[in-house]
Protein: Branched-chain-amino-acid aminotransferase
Amino acid sequence: MAITTLNIPIERAEVSKIEQVDFDNLSFGSVFTDHMLVCDYKDGQWEPPKIIPYQAISLEPSAKIFHYGQSIFEGMKAYKDSEGQVWLFRPLDNFKRLNISANRMAIPELPEEYFMEGLKTLVKLDAQWIPQKEGSSLYVRPFVFASGKGFHASPADEYKFLICLAPSGSYFSGKVKVLIEEKYSRAANGGVGYAKAGGNYAGQFYPTQLAIRKGYNQVIWTDDHAHEFIEEAGAMNIFVRIGDTLITAPTSDRILDGITRKSVLDIARDEGIPVEVRKISVSEVVEAAKNGSLKEMFGAGTAAVISPIAGFGFKEVDYELPEIEDSYASRLKKRITDIQFNRSEDKFGWRYKV
Amino acid sequence: MAITTLNIPIERAEVSKIEQVDFDNLSFGSVFTDHMLVCDYKDGQWEPPKIIPYQAISLEPSAKIFHYGQSIFEGMKAYKDSEGQVWLFRPLDNFKRLNISANRMAIPELPEEYFMEGLKTLVKLDAQWIPQKEGSSLYVRPFVFASGKGFHASPADEYKFLICLAPSGSYFSGKVKVLIEEKYSRAANGGVGYAKAGGNYAGQFYPTQLAIRKGYNQVIWTDDHAHEFIEEAGAMNIFVRIGDTLITAPTSDRILDGITRKSVLDIARDEGIPVEVRKISVSEVVEAAKNGSLKEMFGAGTAAVISPIAGFGFKEVDYELPEIEDSYASRLKKRITDIQFNRSEDKFGWRYKV
Structure:
């Protein structure tokens, strides 16, 4: 591990808000810790980050974030083990993906040291906010947006990088039902679907609302050309188990390269589960549901962890998935959360001590 | 015209900044007038708008605009005629389109009165900021963004609608050269390309930067499936003149329904110009450039007005367009700007007195 050379200045909050928080009844991402990291891009470079009390941001009305959606983010979690030690999960992968997103959105790349040391210093400072209740976690949200001024439709000359922390309950409550989309799309070939860019999420809200009104929780996106192949679910990548084989779509310029997704693939292979990374047609899934070979579907993502899917809708027909013993979803979820919470050996080297 | 029943409260700026502005050297959208309109959506409804001094906005770091790109906007211009009277151009069409965008981005629709009366009151108040120099104008930017808090990837519960005004010079300086895109895409079928949504613009920045480095000003987007057909240019719709026929692509869920675009179509028909609204293949344009039947290409948009295209690049080959007498671009630009500046009869009823 590199020696920490960066000393991040900390302005402490005068009073902590922690006593006001009901840690037994946390929703997802709606209360925030006492501090945040801020880092400004000005005059062609990122200035050193600092930690300040969590507070409002002041921006010009012409700041490009309001007009042209130039923003990217990451999602991570911080875990506390039974000894009180704090861990992150593959944070360098989040850092690398943030810069992949930055490139596609014409945002200047962040220096690794600012991200990693900023993250560690902030999480350490607010470590007492990490929830201890099973299923709860400290959600970590690094994000970058265009703060530079002007109505010209071109990249901003100033940006802000922040990290905020939110003690959170589960992303989904109850069983997850999904709708396989036939009309709307999330991403174009040659577009920005692989980037964790703000606009990718806003575009999903309306079709998702339509699905929610029909009784589903999420949309499973399909290709925009013929809605023939399953892509991802916006907040999570999708896995399908047909017979004993676990299948997920390959990443592409339309699909987010999920960190939970690739961890699930590695663990599944390690468990001896037959794994296929290939295009999954909707008709194959429907057929498998009809003939009984569709054993499981689940979503994988940082916020969603591993979320079993109880059923899906397609062309006005609902398909229920069976409840099975020894599901891949539970096995894989146990393996991954045991690594995250330092309850098991970390043979892949994913755990990162804060 | 409807009787104004809405009285918009005005808090005047103590000191005007107008003396500091060099009206002879305006760039596009980089200085702003003394006032702005603000209107908040809270508790399930839009509160009445008010006008306040142009000032910074304060937002929570978890405001959804920073994370999920939930934002829409419009672009308009205010014109002053030789008598000093102030005009807008088809503003109700901007209002209607704003709500079309709002629906797609899961943003609550704005009441017409708030938009129209707010717009008129603000433009009247800052009318002395309308530049008088030919080619300059007062650019009007209505926009709506998600100000509600929280990291859950779902629509916000609070929004802000603002109108800001920017005295502006031309959007393009000099000749416009465009690159026909072969790799990247702007919009998906079933996506948000037809909405004036922030994220649609950020996604264009990187490919446009690549094009600028090669010596072009803008990208002409093509379909994301095979890059076979010309769609639009992001900041403007595209018109092609082959022989004497003026051709533009039909609007779709991937293409913005431009107000300048549809005005150009109406004027062209009125001028007796043969007009076709149909798919335009890239190969047809390249073929026409090669055999000399490609007479003109131009972009049409509020910011760009009508911008003649001097040449285009495709597959590493540059095609120059001829300089022609009595170009459609100049005829149509004169007709449309004469209507906008109240220099001619307004047979279509497009002018709107402020």
About this structure: Chain B touches chain A through 74 residues (CB under 8 Å). The longest strand of chain B covers residues 137-146. Chain B has a mean pLDDT of 96.
